[in-house]
Design a protein that fits this description.
The structure is a single chain. By secondary structure, the chain is an alpha/beta fold. It is 47% helix and 13% strand. Strands 3-2-1-4-5-6-7 form a seven-stranded parallel sheet, sandwiched between helices. Helix 4 runs parallel beside helix 5. 46% of the residues are buried.
Amino acid sequence: MNPVGSEIFAGHFRSRRVMVTGGGSGIGFGIAQAFAEAGASVLLVDRNPLVSDSAAQLREAGYDAEHAVADVTDEAQVKAAFARVVDLWGGLDVLVNNAGIITISNLEDLSLEEFNKVLAVNTTAVFLCCREAAGLLRASGKGVILNASSGQGRQGFIYTPHYAASKFGVIGLSQSLAKELAPSGVRVNSYCPGIVKTEMWEYNDREWGRRLGDYKPGELIQEWIDGIPLKRPAEATDVANLLLFLASDAGSYITGQAINIDGGMFMN
């Protein structure tokens, strides 16, 4: 992992407590590792029981990391995850709502069940976690919420109306909460990744490629990467570095924003 962000903020998050949903793998694990390297105590939350191995990996590297197995669409499990962070460290300073899913479907084939499932993980779970976190973050004195949106929170892509709706929703939710929580010093921002090198993008390459033309594996993603001004996909570290800044004292005057991290795919 590229350590640039965590080197810049080395020790900055010492004594701060961070929860990362979807923290067991991919972008979420990269975010959790970056905060741990910068001194934070980190709770990795994921529905996959293998999140325990991810937390153990950070502990073996000398960091203060624990885990909670939870489905963030389940209200009771969300409450239990927040109870765990209080039991561990007495409170919370930074919440990163990173858990997310995508499916790709023609409109006529998109079931209500699939539509609702994507909204539940990508949007409703953000609401549930923000609601549980609010009191803890007010008490923190340096409370920060960072919510995962997407390039599709800016512009919906073909064959993903449910995903686009969920990510537009995250931006609106974050703006509303930023206004409500600002008087108590809690900042709320969302982040909008573009193409990131994860297993999810292998699925996207295959499923979009099948619908958009006769693409061989990797060809469609490469075509999209070629259209990025910086000519490369993001790494998890790129996303993590942005979040370190937004959660730091250096970002203390930034709230209510949706910030692209996509190499210039979308410019706002």
